[in-house]
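Bumping with the actual sequence this time:
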Amino acid sequence: MKATLFRGEDVNHETFDRVHQLLQAIAGMNVFVGQGEPLPLPDKPILAWKDLFEICQSARENIAIESDTFIFVITEKPNERNFFGYLDPVNPRNGFVHAGDWERFIHCPAELPVAYHILALMLQHQMVQSERELAHILHKEPVGCVNDFCQNKREVILKMRTADICPNCMELLAKKLSPPEMNHVFELLESLRIKMLFAQNMRQHIEPSPLVVTSEYNLVIPAYGNLEIRMTPLEKTLYLLYMRYPEGIHLTSLVEYKTELQDIYANISSLGSLEEMRQSIDDMCNALNNSASEKLSKIKGHFERVLGKELAKHYYIHGSRGERKRIGQ
């Protein structure tokens, strides 16, 4: 399966990028492409489904997206039936997912349920050929399946905690998707489930586990389902430096590690010219510049978003004002 993702102009690019990253977190048969430019939305407080599906079709035609590729528009604007997401009955490879108000129903970052519902809608299309068929397979009473209807929207937490597909729906799905496609979707659903549990502090009783740097300089925790902590290249550069020095480093002493920071940054980033990269490191090492402190704050946020506040304390960079900063408590 293939899907191209768009964001409405009401969705910030950070949220959109995180949704795209979640769907790309595990390599496999299914492909997800993110389009950076936002799409204009009608100037209405509540969007009609017709409007949303027309936006999808217009984007498909303007960019010449293949007919077998799904298109999803992610928007925070409410829709007329207050659905989490839906596919166009006329062209069921066009759809939308709602990215707003998730804090009312589930305690986790919005990108997790948005990514989940993109996968769920793609699977639904493989199981049925019409809205009438869809009505027959939706579970009015939640059973922890991607096809739970969730008329009470707070029931969504059950199917996200299980990230499962019931036997009847699995039988329908197996007729349409190849085993590699199915396995890839299941791996993605499971990764979302694990991330949601950590974000909800539901696994705070477990012991910290080592964080590993892969050959591609990705930061992953193998014992937690290969959870990846994503950072910008500059944030990752600073974090990798602190990993090399468990005894800690004063922020005012970063200038002494400038050459090392430049080497790390050059290895993990291909963005910008050499001069631009050097300038970024100079700013981070400048004691009069707030660049390093800002990056420490963002690094902390990345860990808390994925692991929850309590478990994250073992991984981000700590230190009182004027003292050495170091990783962990």
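The tokens above came from a reply further down the thread. The mean pLDDT is 91.
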